[in-house]
Design a protein that fits this description.
Blueprint: H1 12-19, E1 24-27, E2 32-34, H2 35-51, E3 59-63, H3 67-80, E4 83-87, H4 93-103, E5 107-109, E6 143-149, E7 157-162, H5 163-176, E8 184-186, H6 194-206, E9 209-211, H7 219-225, E10 230-234, H8 235-243, E11 255-259, H9 265-273, E12 277-284, E13 289-294, E14 298-299, E15 302-303, E16 307-308, E17 312-316, E18 321-326, E19 332-335, E20 338-340, E21 349-358, E22 361-367, E23 372-374, E24 377-379, H10 381-388, E25 394-404, E26 408-417, H11 424-431, E27 443-446, H12 460-467
Parallel strand pairs: 1-9, 3-4, 3-5, 8-9, 10-11, 11-12, 26-27
Antiparallel strand pairs: 1-2, 6-7, 7-19, 12-13, 13-16, 14-15, 17-18, 18-21, 19-20, 21-22, 23-24, 25-26
Helix pairs in contact: 1-2, 2-3, 5-6
């Protein structure tokens, strides 16, 4: 089937309901949802919240406890011109209340008591009688969502995107990461992160299927149950897949988008030997997910994050700071009814990330504000982390700083290993052959047992607090 791409000004769900009515939009643990049925559920959702007083421009704070409900609400907001404001259900009540006040939400909702989609997981559910569906116009330039970011402590910032931002983000992504009818992408990232919402919109625009598993099954078990062609993972998740002995290519995987900032060359080599394409990526909430994507190049100082995708521009300042602009740049930070633009007068957003070019590929060297000065020397934690990941026994690494009376600051590393053991002195000796001796951490420690092994990014602030 030839995929007909929806135009910017039309609702992508309705477009798919017209052009791929009986094709699978969402694959569930039991059964599936066609584009036609999804379109009806979105309509039902629009009626439910309209009856609760929602009007165009109002902000709906939605607690994302159930992926399917969240997808439907997100698409209903797009259709009804409400602002979709997803929040992490783990937020403390006090933080949710403060965030609600910051964004001026009209309504706070979750999945409880909402039944706009009837019985969910049964293949016998059928859409209503066919009728002539008409395209629905939307407002691509209006604020579509507010995504909370930098909210580990205090009140999160609210990044305001338009649908146009997401639309061009998806188009640019598909330039390097092909996605089309018949492909399936596991919705493994939470929908209160821009990466999760990006998967939903990429699949809708491409006519592909998003796969939802609400039970927390091991990833290898999911792959054994359902054919998944596209995966978004971090290094630790990829490690566990390889350890399971599963042949990714044989179960249908064709592309893995690897984020999180650190990548093991050994893992990439093993996966590519199976015939699966691994792509590293650099992105951020303010740029509606991906900025650069490509097949990784491993250098002496780390790994590249690919070339700049279409509809984005990247430049480096004299200090090496990454600056970005383009169609995917968010409208700004939202607070008290006002949007504060992100960019300078020429449209550039200063990311705070430090980078360098390798040909057309960008390598991220760390955060400008993560850098520590030790005895007058600049040390970027990410360089040490990447060096640690070249060791076969290390799965994940994070480097923070400790105060030192002589040097000012010294690096300390926390690592997760394959077998849960660590030879600290031997690890330091090998590191000294890969990075400058003054960059070798004064201590290398194992991850605390209570730290979860999965996640989108390493929480550097947690480890800094742990050290202190």
């Amino acid at each position: 089937m030839k995929t007909i791409f929806p135009e910017l000004q039309y609702c992508p769900v309705r477009h798919r309901a017209i052009n791929q009515s009986t094709c699978t939009a969402i694959q569930l643990e039991e059964g599936s949802v066609t584009f036609r049925l999804l379109d009806e559920w979105v309509d039902d959702c629009c009626r439910v919240y309209r009856d609760k007083g929602m009007r165009p421009g109002n902000r709906l704070l939605f607690v994302t406890s159930k992926p399917l409900d969240t997808v439907i609400v997100a698409l209903a907001c797009l259709r009804s011109q409400w602002v979709f404001c997803p929040v992490n259900p783990a937020f403390p009540e006090e933080q949710k209340s403060a965030y609600r006040e910051r964004i001026g939400a009209t309504l706070v909702a979750d999945s409880a008591g909402v039944s706009f989609h009837g019985r969910l997981c049964r293949t016998e559910v059928r859409p209503r009688a066919e009728s002539g569906l008409q395209s629905l116009e939307i407002s691509p330039e209006a604020i579509y969502d507010l995504i909370a970011t930098s909210g580990t402590t205090g009140i999160p910032k609210a990044v305001a995107h338009s649908y146009k931002n997401h639309y061009f983000s998806a188009l640019g992504s598909m330039h390097t990461l092909p996605l089309t009818y018949g492909d399936t992408w596991l919705l493994s990232l939470p929908l209160f992160h821009v990466g999760g919402l990006a998967i939903v919109l990429r699949c809708l625009l491409a006519g592909a299927t998003m796969v939802l598993f609400e039970r927390k099954l091991p990833l290898d078990e999911m792959l054994a149950r359902k054919r998944l062609t596209h995966l978004s993972l971090v290094n630790t998740q990829l490690f566990r897949l390889i350890q399971s002995g599963l042949s990714l290519y044989d179960v249908g995987v064709r592309y893995i988008l690897l984020g999180g900032g650190v990548v093991s060359p050994r893992l990439v080599e093993e996966v590519e030997a199976q015939g699966v394409t691994v792509l590293t990526t650099y992105g951020m909430t303010e740029m509606a997910s991906q900025i650069c994507t490509g097949e990784p190049l491993f250098t002496d100082s780390g790994v590249t994050s690919g070339a700049v995708l279409p509809w984005r521009e990247v430049r480096l300042s004299q200090e090496g700071e990454v600056q970005v602009r383009g169609e995917t740049l968010a409208k700004g930070y939202f607070q008290n009814g006002q949007v504060t633009p992100l960019s300078d007068a020429r449209g550039w957003f200063y990311t705070g990330d430090k980078g360098r070019w390798f040909g057309e590929q960008l390598q991220i060297c760390g955060r400008m504000d993560n850098m520590l000065i030790s005895g007058g020397e600049n040390i970027h934690p990410e360089e040490i982390e990447q060096a640690l990941l070249t060791f076969p026994e290390i799965v994940q690494a994070v480097v923070v700083s400790m105060t030192d009376p002589e040097y000012g600051k010294r690096p300390v590393a926390y690592v997760q290993t394959v077998d849960g053991t660590l030879n600290e002195s031997f690890t330091k000796e090998r590191l000294a052959g890969k990075i400058a001796k003054f960059k070798v951490p004064v201590h290398i420690r194992l991850f605390p047992e209570q730290i979860a092994e999965s996640g989108i990014k390493i929480n550097r602030r947690f480890f800094q607090a742990l050290l202190e």
